[in-house]
Amino acid sequence: MPPTAPASTPRTSRLRHVAVHAAFLTLLPALAVAVGPGSTAAAAPASTARTSAVAAAAPAAAAAAPRIRFKTASFNILGSHHTTGPGGFADGKKRARLAVKFLKNEGTSVLGMSEAEREQMRIVTRRGGFTSFPSWRKSTDTQTAQSVVWKPQVWAKVRSGRFVIPFNYGNSREQPMVLLRHKASGKKVWVVSVHLQSGSSKAAVREREIGMQRTIRQVKRLTATGNPVLLSGDMNDRKRIFCQVRAKTALLSASGGSWRRGSCRPPGGARIDWIFGGKRLSFSSFRYANSRRINAITDHTVPVATVTW
User: Per the database record, which ranges form the Endonuclease/exonuclease/phosphatase domain (predicted)?
Assistant: First the structure.
């Protein structure tokens, strides 16, 4: 179920998006970020000799590093404001504590989290020993609603940024992307967490389609940096998102499926939460976690997988 984002004025929204755009371009000159509803992301600028050398060296360095293995997930935690009042789920803070127990039991070291509000991310980071982007301390509920989460003992943040998609009928939502370095091996991976618009109305389908295409453009640009991409999130779609990602990027689905010469076959039993990864990332032990504990936390099943690189 999608969170309800407060409407923002066009001028405020534009100013915020411009600030986000400028900040990220400072961090990653080779990446152009789409900002604001209706805007089109520009192609990444032509690389200099130095940029080309770095991009070319990244795959070789990664290949030389030792093989690593880690657990990942896509977790729609169900926002606190969805469960206020009598009946239904427990309050958001209690469910966040249950989520921490689940993640610890799974041994998850990096994941994408959807619908998480600030009070929930505070618990996930403090009690769970995780770090997240964006930081709950400096963000609104609609910003933490889509977060990249990782174990700082395993991963170190190299850089981070956001891109913007339309969300909740005329509003917009920032989607985070973080370049993480695996401390033991030195390998780097981009982690992108997205939440696309839900619903079957014409407006909802249009926003979801725009969000999908902007996500794909960002994935292609991040892939061009030479580091693999791990994409996860509540994408509110079963077939089209799979076929589009497989057709237009080098990512594979953790849950299987195939795309060959225009013939697309989504994995059997596909649901609306996904995990995709670059070709150097191989998946095993994929499942949708759906236990009594999960059912007490959220109205989604939770895709989890082991990644070998």
Answer: 73-282
pTM: 0.81
pLDDT at residue 56, rounded to an integer: 52
Q: What is the DSSP string of 93-144?
A: HHHHHHHHHHHHHHTEEEEEEES--HHHHHHHHHHH--EEES-GGG--HHHH
Residue 114 lies in a domain: yes
* Residue 74 in domain: yes
- The pLDDT of residue 160 is 98
Which residue numbers in the chain have pLDDT < 70? 1-64, 84-87
Q: In what side-by-side order are the strands of the sheet with 171-182?
A: 155-167, 171-182, 188-195, 229-234, 273-277, 252-253
Number of domains in the chain: 1
**CATH number, residue 232:** 3.60.10.10
31 near 217, Cβ under 8 Å?
no
